[in-house]
């Protein structure tokens, strides 16, 4: 028997319809950082002496979205998600990194139980602040259409689906599962690839069939694809010269800002002129379905040399300026 709902010891807010975030594409832009707990940021991005417990609160007043990394490595507790929800302002969005156990160890096979555990750990406690789920594939994981399609069919597409799946969690979460949907809203998923075999029209068509986003990942090692496959675009900027470490200069930030605004207005980014596989291009000759607007999520993951929070702020300013000019 699957463990039933477990009541948390602290009162939970139940959000009414006025609080619900419908996640219909409105052309909103969410720009932030991948994680927020970094030693090198203390005393620079974070003011000297700021208590660690206040770092998320500080960062969430600068950015409107942050990517949670911890969910990639282990199952957390509902209290963590509740604390993060309460520390951030209304309208804030968390992206969540999917379980490494599912993507790297199971390699998407037999993932039903692991998915139930992932979604029962407390992600629903984020309420309307729960954003896209990022599934990052291992560098050696190659394109397998059948395996991907089977996995995509398992993914919950609404918070109601998440709650139902969470009820099927295993004994590992006995007494600590969170299986209540505080809001009714769609749940988005996206895929970050790291193997050249994914650079093919068949992969793009499969993502579009299942309404799964393709992560636009700027790195020095893995393919950079601009194909739009869903009603949102998810972008991770890891550093294009030195992985996780190099910063983005003015010219690069100007270019990324233009792409963000194009995506938000339902357009597509243009291919880069260089022929290297690490330069942005489209894997499929078929353009995305035309839309008036798309939501865009951008996270800087070049944290090693304290570039990420400053690059994210610089991109914010550029995007806001371009949005204003486009009105």
From TrEMBL:
<dbReference type="Pfam" id="PF01904">
    <property type="entry name" value="DUF72"/>
</dbReference>
<dbReference type="InterPro" id="IPR002763">
    <property type="entry name" value="DUF72"/>
</dbReference>
<protein>
    <submittedName>
        <fullName>Uncharacterized conserved protein YecE, DUF72 family</fullName>
    </submittedName>
</protein>
<feature type="compositionally biased region" description="Basic residues">
    <location>
        <begin position="278"/>
        <end position="290"/>
    </location>
</feature>
<dbReference type="InterPro" id="IPR036520">
    <property type="entry name" value="UPF0759_sf"/>
</dbReference>
<feature type="region of interest" description="Disordered">
    <location>
        <begin position="271"/>
        <end position="290"/>
    </location>
</feature>
């Amino acid at each position: 028997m699957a463990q039933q709902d477990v009541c948390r010891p602290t009162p939970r807010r139940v959000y009414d319809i006025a609080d619900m975030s419908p996640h219909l594409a409105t052309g909103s832009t969410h720009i932030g950082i991948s994680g927020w707990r970094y030693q090198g940021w203390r005393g620079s991005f974070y003011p000297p002496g700021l208590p660690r417990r206040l770092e998320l609160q500080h960062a969430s007043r600068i950015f409107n979205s942050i990517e949670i990394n911890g969910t990639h490595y282990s199952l957390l507790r509902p209290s963590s998600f509740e604390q993060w929800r309460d520390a951030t302002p209304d309208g804030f969005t968390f992206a969540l990194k999917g379980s490494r156990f599912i993507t790297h160890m199971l390699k998407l096979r037999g993932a039903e139980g692991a998915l139930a555990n992932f979604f029962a750990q407390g992600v629903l406690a984020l309420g309307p602040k729960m954003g896209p789920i990022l599934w990052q594939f291992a560098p050696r994981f190659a394109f397998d259409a059948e395996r991907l399609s089977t996995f995509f069919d398992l993914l919950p597409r609404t918070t109601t689906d998440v709650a139902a799946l969470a009820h099927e969690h295993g004994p590992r979460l006995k007494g600590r599962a969170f299986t209540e949907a505080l809001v009714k809203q769609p749940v988005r998923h996206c895929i970050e690839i790291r193997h050249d075999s994914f650079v093919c029209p068949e992969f793009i068509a499969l993502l579009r069939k299942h309404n799964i986003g393709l992560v636009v990942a700027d790195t020095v090692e893995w393919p950079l694809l601009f194909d739009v496959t869903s009603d949102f675009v998810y972008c991770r900027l890891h550093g294009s010269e030195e992985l996780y470490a190099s910063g983005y200069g003015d010219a690069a930030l100007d270019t990324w800002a233009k792409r963000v605004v194009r995506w938000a207005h339902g357009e597509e980014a243009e291919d880069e002129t260089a022929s290297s596989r690490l330069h942005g291009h489209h894997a499929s000759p078929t353009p995305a379905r035309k839309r008036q607007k798309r939501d865009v999520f951008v996270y800087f993951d070049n944290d090693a040399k304290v570039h990420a929070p400053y690059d994210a702020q610089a991109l914010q300013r550029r995007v806001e300026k371009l949005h204003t000019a486009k009105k």
